[in-house]
Design goal:
It comes from Bicyclus anynana. 40% of the residues lie in helices and 13% in strands. The protein has 38 helices and 30 strands. The strands form eight sheets. A six-stranded mixed β-sheet has the order 2-1-3-6-7-8, sandwiched between helices. The N terminus is likely disordered.
Length: 1226
């Protein structure tokens, strides 16, 4: 660092005359510009992921086979039962009934227990069956089930254990023998998919052999297929078969008399009752009553009624087991077992309880696919706590049911509180696992008691980003949310639209489910309800835009539901409000309403004509003036879809042509007044459809423009060029030279569309220039690839002009864009410009339908495309905890408002640094200027710097030469960044720092009127382009010719001349002065840029008939102030608090304007040379002006009368006045 104090220049924002206080600290509170997401990242959508939350192979359990081999009264020979031992089967004691009655009762009880979980399935009982009975049963159920799942429940407590080959036992017809049933045969009869439940000892051996027999089936099928050829049927895959076995291989079922004999079946079919019984047997309870076990059968309520004790316990049990499985199993396995089918999911959840209970009796249940043991999961403690609280109330409820009300469990309320604490205190990230309460929140949605709170918490979780939406979808929220669309409660609307917006944004395929469930009506009602808040209607518009996105059924349903009129109503309300978005979020509502309209029209001409009847295109055109670039881009997208729908229509009419031309012209008129790349890209995408529809007309325009350019380059008049072209073709062609190409009318809409396209191809924004160049190149390729027929002798002598513009609006300002872009475009194959004869045009017109202006473009590919809508959807998916509309309250503060974040501390440090530098600057106002004896910075540049701009607060200096620009740290002499500048954009003439109080941006302007905004980078990296556009329409200047015969001095010559004797130095100077002068033109005047941070606008002046003011926040042309002067602007100044604008010109005049008015408030004509400076000092009531001849004039601003005239020692090249100190530099 040097001893020299920092650069203390003060921006024009700080008006002179302020007191010495921190009142100028307002600058640190100014909003930043060009720092929105659209400026910080590429405009492209998020990558589409393959969604795994949907079950790929979802089967319903259609049929259930209940096979009971009990042989009541006869024990199997290989089992020695204890005395006493377990007797209950399906909670029925077989010894209390006759054998036949007991078997029937047990079968009916088992069917009843299964029907609690799936009442719609078809149940068939097979009591003590034979092999033929089972074969008939299984084959019959498979025929009825077709491709659905069949459940096979086997109770083998009255037969021997399965054999080592996995055979189960049945009876012969006389019940005198046990007959083995091969698993291979059972697989053949059952087919797939199937679910097997084995409640018998040594059941694990069946599971072990099942895979071997399945593989054997596949081998047998391959052999049959090879022998029979293609006649064989489709193979049966057993990979989707599920097996649940009571114990492992070699184990015997428990025989404790306190337990039922079918303990495994009891856990699977009556889990709550079995869980309570086991809990009572092994736990010290709050209520120590000997008959509590007998009271278990008297628990009040129904399993299906969540308001009762039994129903609530079953509800909590389902939530806990579902959460245990979700938090412990791989996602694919969880989806396969717990989300594929209602009955399968229930059995798998209950299997977790069976694993926990039976392990305590030295039995290990087995499953396929294999499930890990979850008997020690921490959530089982919450289940036991819930049982303890419930059983404490049971005696009182049963003794005096009318005097004691059941107190509901606080389980779900506590789980919601835990989820809320996770959101409040957790460190959210994609790498962190979601909270284990997430499945429980979904269970809460089934009840109206905590539904509103659960939805609000769910909204807060979804606001964390796309990863949270994936987690919620994976846990199974989708069917719950579909059912809630039928709810009419108004307090759910806010949360519902937010959750559905997140779901549709993550997985657009949900549009099919929404349309099938008629869910679009829900969001249409929200959008049309004026009592709903704007944020919620915006979310409804977002969902509707997703429903109609490339889905014909969704488009038709939305159109029948009056979506078009609902969206247009929002546009009408905005127009009636004077174009102001009064309500918070109104701009976002307009944006998504426009996107919804565009997606509704895309590819559907019928919907487009419905919009025409409502004058939708006129209402949308008004939104092209909106201050939000996203709204204007969405409007342009909708109008592009409007034109595209007409382009893809099978029939074209004159009315359709006029509509499309009118819309296209309105869009093209916005290209030179809109600075947002988003908007201009959408406009270019819309104009391509005009090129594709009216391809022949644009080819004619291209031909004519190519001829004009060729004539200019050859220096011949147009008629002479045509003469030469006709002569080259032969003597007979000369007479037809005048009709060799069709005359394009001056007011033709195609010419007015072609000129902006050519101008956009020379834009400084690379992506936009490439898009326009691709469209122009498409027309050029079509011309080059077509062999035009020669004109015949009998051709008529009149010209074929193209249809004029359909309206009477003035022509678009095309400035100097009526020529083709020079870079990257094609010439004719033979080196001569192509021509079109009238005969070729007439022949072409006869080939087309009389009602159509273009051929069908269905087979053509689009030329350019944009991803604005996809990017806007990705923006919605970002973490926006503070924007969770359905959360009821602020779900968290934005990251940039976090007072503990690094960004906040950096801002506070920078704010204090700026305040300190301003105080130091005020202290130096009256200081005497020091002698310039110390060099603070020195660096060599490959080219002479043309512009230098110092940063107001940092030790940064921006330098620009002809072909590049860069930023240096003048304190350390380090090169921070260097950016390339294309010569086609013109030479750099001005630099300006934007957002200097925070992260500064660098504005670079060229003499051709191009303006680019860069974000400087460190470490020598190339600065990032933020935005660029043609900000000033400069007048064409005469070609610059430097004076000839002027000696060019090298640095070595200058140094040698410095140390030469006086007489030699004088002789060399006399020789230089005696060199003959040649006429030359002055170099073209540069573009001047002035930035106003307070008004967030840029002012540009130069070789143009007006001064342009650009609103940097809205990225729109704010005003055009006519200069009233033919000379170019050479000096520009803007006021801080006052809207004052001063401009000096090349003819020596100085003009002052109020930016809010077009007429100048003052004009001075005192200088005879170009003005270099016109700067007022309001604290001294002084205006300082100076010109290149060295004349400086001081005026009293109160009277605009000259006070003093000062002459510099010689001509001046630059002049500036310090805005604070009494300093003047040249």
């Amino acid at each position: 660092m040097t001893d020299m104090p920092p650069y203390l220049a003060v921006n024009d924002e700080e008006e002179s005359g302020e007191p010495d206080s921190d009142s100028s600290d307002f600058e640190d509170d100014l909003p930043l510009i060009f720092n929105k997401p659209r400026h910080l990242e590429p405009i492209k959508g998020a990558e589409r992921e393959e969604h795994s939350w949907r079950v790929k192979e979802k089967y319903k359990t259609h049929c259930v086979a209940l096979v009971l081999c009990l042989n009541v009264g006869v024990d199997p020979p290989d089992v020695i039962k204890t005395q006493p031992c377990a007797r209950l089967q399906c909670w029925i004691d077989p010894s209390s009934l006759s054998p036949t009655k007991a078997l029937e009762s047990i079968g009916n009880a088992l069917q009843t227990q299964y029907e609690r979980w799936q009442p719609r399935a078809r149940y068939k009982q097979s009591l003590d069956p034979t092999m033929d009975d089972i074969k008939k049963l299984c084959c019959s159920l498979r025929r009825n089930a077709k491709e659905e799942r069949v459940l096979f429940h086997y109770n083998g407590h009255g037969v021997p254990k399965p054999t080592s080959q996995g055979e189960i036992w049945v009876f012969n017809k006389s019940y005198t023998q046990y007959i083995p049933l091969s698993m291979y045969d059972l697989q053949t009869w059952m087919g797939a998919p199937s679910l097997y439940v084995y409640d018998c000892s040594n059941a694990g051996v069946i599971v072990d052999n099942f895979k071997q027999f399945a593989a054997q089936h596949e081998r047998d099928y391959e052999m049959q297929a090879s022998s029979k050829g293609a006649e064989g049927g489709a193979p049966v895959s057993y990979k989707n078969c599920i097996q649940l076995a009571a114990c492992a291989s070699g184990q015997t079922l428990p025989m404790s008399p306190e337990l039922p004999a079918d303990l495994f079946t009891a856990c699977l079919t009556t889990p709550v009752k079995m869980a309570i019984k086991w809990f009572v047997l092994r736990t010290r309870l709050r209520v120590a009553r000997a008959d509590l076990v007998d009271l278990i059968d008297k628990i009040p309520g129904q399993v299906t009624d969540r308001r009762t004790m039994l129903g609530e316990l079953n509800w909590i049990f389902t939530a806990i087991t579902d959460t245990i499985a979700w938090s412990s199993l791989p996602p694919e396995l969880f989806q396969q077992l717990f989300r594929a089918d209602l009955l399968t999911a229930s059995l798998c959840r209950n299997f977790l309880l069976a694993d926990r209970i039976m392990r305590s009796y030295n039995c290990t249940p087995v499953s396929s696919p294999a499930l890990p043991s979850l008997a020690r999961h921490p959530l089982w403690a919450a289940w036991e706590h819930t049982l303890d609280l419930a059983l404490a109330q049971l005696p009182a409820l049963l003794d005096k049911p009318h005097h004691h009300n059941y107190h509901h469990s606080p389980f779900f309320r506590d789980q919601l509180t835990a989820f809320q604490l996770w959101l409040d205190l957790g460190n959210w990230s994609e790498s962190r696992a979601p909270p284990e309460q997430l499945p429980m929140v979904l269970q809460v949605l089934l009840s109206t008691l905590h539904r509103v709170r659960a939805l609000q918490i769910l909204c807060r979780f979804l606001s964390l980003g796309a990863w949270a939406v994936h987690a919620v979808l994976a846990v199974g929220i989708f069917p719950y949310m579909l059912k809630l669309l039928q709810a009419s409660a108004h307090d759910l609307r806010a949360s519902m639209v937010y959750i559905w917006a997140k779901i549709v944004a993550v997985d657009p395929s949900c549009q099919v489910d929404l349309v099938n469930a008629k869910g679009h009506k829900y969001f249409l009602s929200v959008l049309q309800d004026p009592s709903v808040e704007t944020e919620h209607r915006t979310l409804a518009a977002f969902v509707l835009a997703g429903i109609v996105d490339r889905y014909p059924a969704g488009q038709e349903a939305a159109l029948q539901g009056s979506m078009l009129s609902a969206c247009l109503e929002k546009l009408r309300e905005w127009a009636e409000a004077g174009g102001a978005c009064a309500a918070r979020g109104e701009a976002a509502l307009l944006q998504w309403a426009c996107i919804a309209l565009g997606r509704l029209w895309r590819g559907w001409d019928a919907a487009r004509w419905v919009g025409v009847r409502d004058r939708a295109h006129d209402k949308l055109a008004a939104l092209l003036l909106h201050r939000r670039p996203e709204v204007r881009a969405a409007c342009a997208f909708a109008l592009a879809a409007f034109v595209e729908a007409g382009a893809r229509a099978p029939q074209r009419t004159d009315h359709a042509n006029a509509l499309d031309q009118l819309v296209a012209k309105r869009l093209a008129e916005r290209l030179h007044v809109d600075a947002s790349p988003l908007v201009r890209a959408e406009i270019l995408a819309a104009l391509q459809w005009m090129v594709l529809m009216f391809e022949q007309h644009f080819k004619a325009v291209y031909q004519q423009e190519r001829v004009k350019r060729s004539d200019r380059e050859s220096g011949q008049p147009i008629d002479a060029a045509l003469d030469a072209l006709a002569g080259a073709r032969g003597p007979h062609a000369r007479a037809n030279a005048a009709i060799a190409r069709p005359a394009i009318g001056f007011g033709s809409v195609f010419l007015e569309l072609w000129n902006p396209l050519c101008a956009m191809a020379r834009e400084p924004h690379p992506q936009l220039a490439q898009m326009a160049a691709d469209i122009v190149a498409y027309v050029a390729d079509q011309v080059d690839n077509v062999q035009w027929p020669e004109p015949e002798r009998g051709a008529h002598a009149h010209s074929n002009s193209l249809p004029p513009s359909p309206n009477s609006r003035p022509a678009l300002h095309a400035h100097d864009s009526r020529t083709l872009p020079h870079a990257g475009h094609r010439r004719g194959k033979a080196g001569l410009p192509h021509t079109i004869s009238e005969d070729s045009v007439a022949l072409r017109d006869r080939d087309r339908d009389s009602t159509s202006s273009t051929s069908s473009i269905s087979s053509k590919k689009i030329i350019v495309s944009t991803q604005f809508v996809e990017w806007a959807t990705a923006q919605f998916l970002r973490g926006d905890a503070g924007a969770a509309a359905g959360a009821g309250a602020a779900a968290g503060e934005r990251a940039d408002a976090d007072r503990e974040s690094r960004a906040h501390h950096e801002r506070e440090w920078r704010r204090e640094r700026n305040r300190s530098m301003r105080r130091e600057a005020r202290a130096l106002r009256q200081a005497r200027p020091a002698r310039l004896e110390t060099v603070a910075f020195h660096s060599r540049c490959p080219l002479p710097p043309a512009v230098v701009q110092f940063h107001p607060y940092e030790q940064h200096a921006a330098l620009a030469s002809r072909d590049n620009f860069g930023v240096w740290d003048w304190g350390t002499a380090a090169k921070l960044c260097v950016g390339a500048w294309r010569r086609a954009w013109g030479r750099i003439t001005a630099l300006a720092y934007l957002n200097a109080h925070q992260h500064a941006l660098l504005a670079v302007a060229s003499h051709q009127g191009h303006l680019a905004i860069y974000r400087p980078a460190g470490g020598g990296a190339e600065p990032a382009l933020v935005t660029a556009w043609r900000a000033l329409d400069v007048r064409p200047a005469p070609d610059y010719r430097p004076p000839s015969a002027q000696p060019i001095y090298s640095l070595a010559q200058l140094v040698s001349e410095q140390f030469a004797p006086p007489e030699e130095r004088g002789a060399a100077r006399a020789l230089h002065d005696a060199a003959p002068a040649s006429p030359s033109n002055p170099p073209p005047t540069g573009t001047l840029v002035r930035w106003s941070a307070r008004r967030r606008s840029l002012a540009l002046a130069g070789q143009a008939p007006c001064v342009r003011l650009w609103d940097a926040h809205a990225e729109l042309l704010q005003a055009e102030i006519p200069t009233g002067c033919e000379a170019a602007a050479t000096a520009l100044w803007r006021g801080g608090r006052s809207a004052q604008l001063l401009c000096g010109f090349g003819d020596g005049s100085v003009r002052a304007w109020d930016e809010r008015a077009a007429r100048p408030v003052a004009t001075l004509h005192q200088h005879a040379a170009p003005v270099l400076c016109a700067t007022p000092r309001h604290d001294l009531y002084t205006l300082v002006t100076g010109c290149t001849e060295g004349e400086l004039r001081l005026y009293d601003t109160r009277k605009l009368s000259p006070v003093e005239v000062v002459r510099a020692p010689g001509p001046l090249a630059a002049l500036d006045v310090h805005p604070r100190a009494a300093l003047l530099a040249w």
